Amino acid sequence: MQAAVEAEATQTAHAPFDVERIRAEFPILTQQVHGKPLVYLDNAATAQKPQVVIDALERYYTEQNANIHRGVHYLSQLATREYEDARVKIQRFLNAAEAHEIIFTRGTTESINLVALSFGRKFVQAGDEIIISTLEHHSNIVPWQMLCEQTGATLRVIPINDAGELLLDEYERMLNPKVKLVAVAHLSNALGTLNPVQRIIELAHAQDIPVLLDGAQAAPHIKVDVRELDCDFYALSGHKLCGPTGIGVLYGKSRWLEAMPPVFGGGDMIASVTFEKTTYNTLPHKLEAGTPHIEGGIGLGVAVDYLTGIGLDRIAAYEHELLEYATELIGSIPGVTLVGTAREKASVLSFTIDNIHPHDIGTILDQEGIAIRAGHHCAQPVMKRFGVPATARASFAFYNTKAEIDALAVGIQKAIEVFS
Q: Fewest C-beta atoms under 10 Å: which of 32, 221, 263, 312?
């Protein structure tokens, strides 16, 4: 199966990017909203699902449904094989060294919390420091605040410039022997800034400091190679990768995962249990207590195969064209201000309109069948840095088109007319 996926990826790498063929593989994109064709530009919140993923979930429930790992009967063996095959697919998708370095979670939020609770319990104490950045999603702020409150450690924050770019000189000055972890977004969900994570990791590793990357936004849009990056942890969410909701991944280097204690106790994470003592299972099961989201894992495996078949490099190139087109078109509308103008960006265009609240922008666009996100995007410190309560955010995927961006521009003009 994997050889077929790789062969398809090689074949399509040289073919023209056929967005209409791709759109036909997403049933939801054919519908109308308020009598208008759906223009779905809320991909940073969640991506739509291709038919192959939908089919995989239906097939699991109609042909494979059973609990995994412990059953000796046919259905259990079949479901276990499909689930563990999905782990291997994700290992290859991220180029992890071993399949046991892939821990299934409910999503990026749980993955980061797992590191905070387990790594933090083992390695962080009073007087230590953890570094994050101004650009972070709340999911990469709150767990570290909680850990600092519990341990007496200190949270330090890398500042950004007016374009929404990290100030690396400031970051480098923060690094010292007290720092036990650096945790930063690979790609900002609020601004689309693509952070210089390779340099961030190199500087941290020069002082033997491990690095966690929040890859929720990056993994769907650019090719991620965790060994080339040399990150210690990488967190992602399946639903942003065209997979099911409620499933995610924590990648961790074996040496860290082996050292981390379990956070949740129960089934599957044990080797043996007596009333006197419990011994724990090997990786990855040590960190995966209880019945998992079996169909979610299988569906995510199908989703990463689907994306691999298209090619992440081709997806990145096409989406870059969309972002450039949207930046020029939307940015040229009088009264529109783009928020976040980093030189390296992907997928996200945040903006405000003079004298119109982003929620009103979103409401008017919805009446035109256009789905965007309006609010603080679970990144309130970013909004505070730019002096705005919220932004309107259009976020793009490989199934979007320039015609849809044209429709967005028309919708924005309509919103301006309504409130003028």
A: 32
